[in-house]
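Why does residue order matter? Because the sequence determines the fold. Keep that principle in mind as you read this record.
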Amino acid sequence: MRRLSLTPRPDWKSRAEAVGFTWHHADGRRYWDERAAYAFTLDEVEGHLEPATEALHKLCLEFVEEAIGSDALMAKLQIPEASRDVVAASWKARDPSLYGRFDFFYDGAGPPKLYEYNADTPTSIYEAAVFQWLWLEDLIQRGALPDSTDQFNSLHDQLAERLRAIFPSGGFVHFASDPDFVEDRQTVRFLEDMARLAGLEPKFVPTTEIGLDADGRFIDQDNYLIGAMFKLYPWEDMLREPYAANIAGSKTLFIEPPWKALLSNKALLPLLWERHPGHPNLLETYFDDDPKVERLGSSYARKPLFSREGANVELWTNGRKGRVLDQGYGAEGWIRQELKPPPKFGANYPVVGSWVIGDQPAGIGVREDRGRVTRDRSRFVPHIIEG
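Structure:
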């Protein structure tokens, strides 16, 4: 694994906008950054990243099987008591999952270590699936990279294949998000395109326009029943909305399904460590109020159970806390994780996001920052496999 310095294409912005990647800058700062790329060897991909993704996916599914039968585990995972039957029923029905993303410490020298699992919302899937692949093809065509250069990236094809498997008879599927938040809306547009490729008929519904009919079933802005829906809205919020009581009787198939609520918060991390201590792909992690946190000493990462993009993550080094992006998270509780900052390449700290589609590893995306915590404005940097 190494970081390459590259010359950006002079027309990259217009190319991005032509394919719908309109959030390539955020608040005037570069989000997509092709001034660099991370190069991996085939052995690193096939010997480290793919096996780690497969292994952790298997551990997570085994954990869900255990958790659905345990009120104590559901409570630790902050599943509201009124929604626990809904979560358990979705697993027992084997409601299908489309994707998940494991965020790894990885430096090329040893096994990847899990920072956290983004099991519910699809942040960065478009960048990973589409634009970094188009970047690679363009650089090969221009002669800037050898013809033998590859990428760990079958996301586009696997997403379409998985959607076909979920909906083998085709049909009508709703897609929901905030219509005014550009990144969310464009990401959902991409998934709508994947649905069309899979032979489905997608229809967008703003999350604020979803209602209930007289039978308590979800309906869209035109009063059509929502039989199946992809929603870019996290389960930890959905299960706390007034309409949560209607989910069980709605007969809606949700993508991602309710059982993903068991995997999409950081309480998962100490619970996995408790079950698999010393696992090569896990970091030692405990709940904040567990006496065993003393084993971590005075250097650790302290994380809220629910937070987004590095918000309220505290890095403690020898008893001193680093700078924190405070967005008010933490009311539900905290974990402490072994301190394992991302590897440093020059002034940059990369985190590797490894995607699983269905049950298959499907590709990676790299986010990097000048700080040790990946935040909402951390840059997305493309990657290659060197031939």
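The chain has a mean pLDDT of 96.
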